[in-house]
User: Fold this.
Amino acid sequence: MSKVDEDKCVGDRFCEDVCPTKAIRMVNKKAVVDETKCAGCLHCLDACGEGAIMVLPREEPLVLGCDTSDMDPAEIAALCKRANFDPEERICVCMDVRAGEVAGAILQGARSPEEVSLLTGVRTSCGMWCMAPVQRLLQAHGDAAEPEKGYRWYPIDTGVWDIPEEVARRYPEYRLEEDSAQFREGTLENLVSIFKVKS
Assistant:
């Protein structure tokens, strides 16, 4: 877990800005770590140019993971479907977190990427590729969260399902209509997992 050397901390907020679980906050212009939220991802260590972050072993491990065994699989699948994911699709390759686990965390009350990270471990490694899928699942649930001032969220990438029909028709050379139809049918060959979306 991270610990701050207050004598070296200059309060530049870089550590706070990169924390995927909001474990670091500035108090009186010094970084303070909430041990109950620190996932030990080391983003703050990398971001701190002052050498004010130390990493110490925990007395008790912090286990990140969302238990969905008692949840309704149909409810999880429905949320994943609205976000155009298969529940078994890996959305965080680094931590091996699947869409169904993120959907479960959202259905259990996570309302921001940081809360999802704390429940599942998603974003606690590279933090790049999984941010857009987490946001898509949050939006599909109706949670249009915005980052707090200073926090960096990667934007949601446009998918073939987002392209308006009139745009797809205007540019036939890109085969957007064909790709969209194949996606909906579950036959688009370049998908990580084939997910059939029924109308």
Notes: The two ends are 47 Å apart (CA to CA). The first helix runs from residue 14 to 18. The chain is about 30% helix and 10% strand.
